[in-house]
Amino acid sequence: MKTSFCAVAALAAIASAHSWLGCTDHDNVEILKWMEGNATLTPPVTIDPLMPWFANFCKGWPRAKSNPGDWIAESSNYVWNIAANSFNGETHACHPNQRGPTYEGNAPMATAAPGGSVRLMFGGNGHARGGNVGGDPGTVTVYWKGEPEAEIVDISEFTEENKLQSDGFSAESFAYPANVLTPQEGLQDKGNWQTLNLPKAMIPGRHMFVWVWSYQNAPQWSTCFDIMVQ
Which residues, if any, are the signal sequence (predicted)? Predict the structure, then answer.
């Protein structure tokens, strides 16, 4: 298959920027205070809520997620690169390991009540202020079929009808210091969250969702997860 230099260059740029859900029900109240306080020390001390020793703050996990996780391994074999895979003709919405409601015993799916909320957590990975993604960190969107036991299978189902909620990638982000944009300039952006609000009329049962990070006007990365509504 022939590919243009521009296409290859674009894919290389996309591959260098990535993020995924590390937790689907994260309690960040205490750890965010630590992060903010430690950032004022001399020198500052960075706290990364995705590290395994902070796993106790997570009450729900994505599909096939290990607890504690290994972010180095996950950055290669857990994330789903929508852009690269669709370029090669693979348009599935989820990573192969996330195409069914499979959970490890100590990493269950989140639970919530109709009308409740869960806080999704993902890494900024140096992109919270637009670094390496064209200057705009883009959006995070959650798609849902609207009923229990219904799966989103293909990226063609990322539609307005299936969109539950969309927010800025950095709408709930802690990053420091001020006035820097990239890790090369000293940016630390270890904490990004999205508070997902569930409809009051949700029917009890297992609901499947797809979290999608989009930038440069296209979906780039996804993580699939479930919430048991009860």
Answer: 1-19
Angle 197-198-201 from CA coordinates, rounded to 5°: 145
Q: In sequence order, what are the residues at sequence separation of 6 or more whose Cβ sits closer than 8 angstroms to the Cβ of residue 202?
A: 114, 115, 229
Provide the residue ranges of all domains of the chain, joining segments of one domain with +. Answer: 5-229
Query: Helix/strand/coil (H, E, C) string of 53-74?
Result: HHHHHECCCCCCCCCCCCHHHH
Is 5-229 a domain of CATH 2.60.120? no
First and final C-alpha spacing in the chain? 50
What pLDDT, in 10s, does the model give residues 205-225? 999 999 999 999 999 999 999
Distance of alpha carbon 30 from alpha carbon 39, whole angstroms: 14
Q: Are 227 and 112 in contact (CB under 8 A)?
A: yes
Q: Pairing state of beta strands 218-229 and 188-197?
A: unpaired
pTM: 0.92
**Cα–Cα distance measured from residue 87 to residue 102, given in angstroms and rounded to the nearest whole number:** 27
Encode 103-128: b = buried (16+ Cβ within 10 Å), e = exposed. Answer: beeebbbbebeeeeebbbbbbbbbbb
Q: Letter for the amino acid at 133? A: V
Sign of the CA dihedral running 34, 115, 100, 15: negative
The answer to whether the CB of 165 falls within 8 A of the CB of 188 is no
